[in-house]
Amino acid sequence: MLPSTVSTIAVGGNITAWGSVIVDQELAVFSAALRAYRKRTGLTQRQLAAEAGVSVRTVRGIECGEVCRPHPASLRVLAAATGLDEPCGVAVSVLGPLVVRRGSVEVAVEGTKQRSLLALLALRADEVVPQHEIIDVLWGDDPPRTCRDLIYVHASRLRKVLGSGAVDAASSAGYRLNGDRVGLDTARFTSLVEVGEHARALDCWRGAVLADLPDRVRQHPAALALARQRVAVTIDHADTGGRLEEARHRLEAVVPDEPLHEELHARLMLALAGCGEQGVALELYERLRDRLDRELGVHPGPVLRDAHLRVLRQEVRTRPPYRPMWTRSRHATNSAPRMSIFDG
After folding, report:
1. Please, are residues 270 and 311 in contact by the beta-carbon 8 Å criterion?
2. How much is the pTM?
3. How is 87-135 classified by DSSP, letter by letter?
4. Do 218 and 208 form a contact (C-beta atoms < 8 A)?
5. Domain boundary residue, one of 90, 107, 131
6. Spatial distance between the Cα atoms of 116 and 112, rounded to a whole number of angstroms
7. Which of 90, 110, 131 is the last residue before a domain boundary?
8. Is the N or the C terminus of the chain less surrounded, counting Cβ atoms within 10 Å?
């Protein structure tokens, strides 16, 4: 690692040499940790390879340092399978305020427009983002006449931050962020969800998607889809997780970013009541009920009403799941809510 006194690299700085040192050191740490993990768990290289879905040669090469530049996808799945931190030269994080790091060193990306461009490309990593979409996100309905030239300038500056090959220009069609050249917290989140590691997947989040950027970025369909996936994973984890306090913690982390989401609030109410905080749970219900009436002109739905009634009756679990009785099937569309078993 670099000395802790070096915390930020500004855009345009001479970071090429530093970047190679960080990458090599991060990879060496990962190789040693991977080998230690396998020894500690008693797994053979073949067993670990099968668990992660990579070849034995890949595991052997990384452990022995024979592969200088492993494929990022291989590192990602090995990290997901073992719980280790994924090594990467440059990492872009969008699950919270936008953060760029080179190894452990934060890289400053200056200017709202440049940050918004990077955020948009990261949301749609490995896809060509058309120029008209970039213009809409960066300037809305009033772009300057030189907007395409400005995009070119911002993209060029991003290449200096992320390294060559990270941002591709697809002729006049648009720009693409190469996910093989940049570590993305969205990719790690998705990988962990796919292997059922919901708690670790939720640890990838630091707040609302791109919380520090303008609404045009935060309301992009890709950002909204990530927020919905976070909610779904949080609900599944609350319904199937283990410890009461952990479920409460996970729900409390998401509820402020989803202030009108009734299912999240219902589960948090039941978790709070299960922790002995019935009064706090009832206050949460009253605040949401008033907000639904004030902002949407609607009354609480069946899921929230059921949770309220169970808190009043003290019919709550002291361990997960915290499903209200009335839940909607995840495969249903316009069907009526179905009854699920809830043991008080």
Report:
1. yes
2. 0.72
3. P-SEEEE-SSS-EEEETTEEEE--SHHHHHHHHHHHHTTTSPEEHHHHH
4. yes
5. 90
6. 6
7. 90
8. C
Domains: count for the chain? 2
Is residue 103 included in any domain, yes or no? no
Q: What tokens does 70 get?
A: 């492993």
CB 121 within 8 A of CB 175: yes
- The pLDDT profile of the chain, 344 residues, written as one tens digit per residue, is 333 333 333 433 333 333 343 345 567 777 878 888 888 889 999 999 898 888 988 888 888 877 666 777 788 788 888 887 766 668 899 999 999 988 778 889 999 999 999 999 999 999 999 999 999 999 999 999 999 999 999 999 999 888 878 898 876 789 999 887 788 999 889 988 988 889 989 999 999 999 999 999 999 999 999 999 999 999 999 888 668 888 899 999 999 999 999 999 999 999 999 999 999 999 999 999 999 999 999 999 999 999 999 999 988 876 555 555 544 444 333 333 332 323 34
Q: For residue 185, what is the enclosing H or E element?
A: helix 185-194
Q: For residue 340, give its domain range.
A: 241-344
Q: Please check whether residue 30 lies inside any domain of the structure.
A: yes
